[in-house]
Q: What sequence folds into this?
């Protein structure tokens, strides 16, 4: 047996046997005969039975050696032809040797130690260890030791049965390697047989499906995890690409399906199916990839692109609207200028003809010039303030005490004069003495814009009500009309620069007035609220704080 250290037996030519070999072979033959007698005694057999037993050992297709346990080095007393074929050593060359000559650099010391312990205890054992042939070729030797005892219970020999386990060991190692690779693979992988039953599944696939591997093996995988489509409709097995690929012998890849977890939730997957026909098995291997995160990222990317397109379209529309309204603002600037030039030219021609202007005509002319210039200043101020606000800058306020009732009266008088007969009638309730702190010119422009809109968008003759009242240490201005009104969905947008309500089409305007008014009021620490309905009119409420809060806000 392979029990000692030291040098292995010689691996020279067997064509010539040395004198020492012959002497050793003769001694081994004698020992073999003695062992045979002992074997015969164990079975109470005669010479014929003994010969039959040795002939049986000699004819076995696996390697068999008998080892003499009476000798100190446990020499081989018998070896059959199968042992010679397995190891490459001739029988005469190994008789009388310890089996350690089969060991080599990769022989597992643990297996050798197991053999030693069995021999020392007179027990049997089976080990698989790395041995070497006479040519130095390694092979896996499955060695089984069994003690032979005589009728008195004395151990007289060991039978060593040796079989080449190389193919089995390599197959086991290959399977272990494949199992390790499957276990370490992040992708889910499982196999099915011809009937669709699971033959193996790796931990990644089991975790993806919410099962333990033992709960899946042998189950119909289509019925277990692939029974419904993404939309919840039943998925017939004959329509399943996995079954079709396994039956048709053609691999395929599917990118837009789901599998169903044990808890009933659907998992979006991409899977590949590869038939196993022609590799010693039937069925197919299925590889699963969870694409939940990829689909989420794709949805987010699509939503982002949609938002970007919408924002781009909105920006382009805003630019187009701005350009359009700027052209309207330019028109509003040119119109009073043209009227102003016409008035001046008319007076120039009269003066050149020697026709002096009466005092009443001069007053009317100057009033007309004033109104035209005021319209110019208003348009220029709106555009200038809009430019500042678009750049995110605050307006420079010239703060002073302002009698809001008096200011409202002045604004209403100016608008009534500018609108002339046929405009909406303005009803004012604005007592003096309602004093706040603010920029008088800009607050006047706020009132001009709000009250002017009420008059502009109201039918002729309908009332526009303007009221001013004190509230706490601040003031409230309410402007109410019965004009065209504003759709509910557009109320929040009318304070956006350049935006004009759909009901304002056909009326002159820049779309800057309300945006500027809201910014001016907000910089004074106040607020503008607007209530409106199409065909019913609009109510605008302006709330302005007292002096202390206004000072903080400005």
A:
């Amino acid at each position: 047996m392979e029990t000692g250290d030291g040098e292995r037996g010689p691996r020279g030519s067997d064509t010539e046997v040395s004198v020492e070999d012959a002497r050793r072979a003769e001694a081994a033959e004698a020992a073999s005969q003695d062992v045979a007698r002992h074997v015969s005694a164990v079975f109470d057999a005669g010479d014929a039975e003994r010969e039959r037993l040795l002939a049986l050992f000699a004819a076995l297709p696996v390697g068999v050696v008998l080892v003499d346990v009476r000798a100190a080095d446990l020499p081989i007393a018998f070896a059959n032809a199968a042992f010679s074929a397995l190891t490459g050593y001739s029988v005469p060359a190994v008789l009388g040797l310890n089996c350690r000559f089969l060991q080599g650099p990769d022989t597992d010391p643990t297996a050798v130690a197991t053999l030693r312990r069995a021999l020392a205890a007179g027990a049997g054992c089976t080990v698989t260890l790395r041995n070497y042939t006479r040519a130095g070729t390694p092979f896996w030797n499955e060695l089984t030791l069994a003690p032979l005892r005589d009728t008195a219970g004395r151990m007289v020999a060991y039978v060593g049965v040796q079989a080449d386990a190389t193919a089995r060991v390599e197959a086991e190692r290959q399977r272990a390697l494949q199992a390790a690779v499957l276990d370490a693979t992040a992708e889910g992988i499982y196999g099915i047989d011809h009937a669709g039953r699971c033959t193996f599944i790796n931990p990644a696939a089991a975790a993806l499906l919410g099962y333990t591997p033992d709960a899946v093996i042998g189950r119909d995988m289509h019925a277990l995890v692939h029974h419904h489509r993404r939309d919840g409709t039943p998925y017939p097995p004959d329509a399943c690409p996995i079954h079709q690929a396994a039956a048709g012998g053609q691999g395929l890849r599917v990118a837009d399906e789901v599998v169903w977890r044990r808890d009933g939730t659907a998992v979006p997957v991409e899977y590949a199916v590869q038939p196993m026909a022609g590799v010693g098995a039937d069925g197919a291997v299925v590889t699963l990839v969870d694409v939940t995160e990829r689909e989420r990222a794709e949805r987010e990317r699509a939503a982002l692109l949609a938002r970007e397109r919408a924002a781009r379209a909105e920006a382009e529309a805003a630019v187009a609207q701005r350009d359009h309204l700027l052209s309207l603002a330019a028109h509003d600037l040119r119109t009073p200028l043209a009227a102003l030039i016409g008035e001046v030219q008319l007076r120039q021609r009269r003066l050149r003809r020697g026709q002096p202007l009466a005092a009443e005509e001069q007053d009317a002319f100057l009033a007309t010039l004033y109104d035209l210039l005021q319209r110019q200043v208003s348009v220029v101020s709106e555009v200038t303030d809009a430019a500042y606000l678009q750049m995110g800058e605050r307006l420079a306020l010239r703060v002073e005490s302002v009698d809001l009732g008096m200011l409202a009266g002045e604004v209403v008088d100016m608008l009534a004069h500018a609108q002339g007969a046929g405009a909406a009638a303005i009803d004012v309730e604005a007592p003096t003495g309602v004093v706040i702190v603010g920029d008088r010119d800009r607050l006047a422009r706020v009132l001009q814009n709000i009250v002017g809109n009420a008059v502009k968008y109201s039918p002729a003759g309908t009332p526009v009500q303007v009221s001013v009242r004190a509230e706490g240490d601040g003031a409230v201005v309410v402007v109410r009309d019965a004009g065209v009104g504003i759709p509910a969905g557009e109320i929040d947008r009318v304070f956006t620069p350049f935006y004009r309500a759909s009901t304002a089409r056909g009326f002159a305007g820049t779309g800057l007035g309300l945006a500027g008014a809201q910014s001016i009021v907000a910089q004074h620490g106040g607020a503008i609220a607007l209530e409106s309905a199409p065909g019913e009119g609009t109510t605008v409420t302006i709330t302005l704080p007292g002096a202390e809060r206004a000072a903080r806000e400005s």
About this structure: The chain has a mean pLDDT of 81. The CA atoms of residues 359 and 365 lie 10 Å apart. The chain has four domains: 19-170, 185-290, 296-369, 394-553.
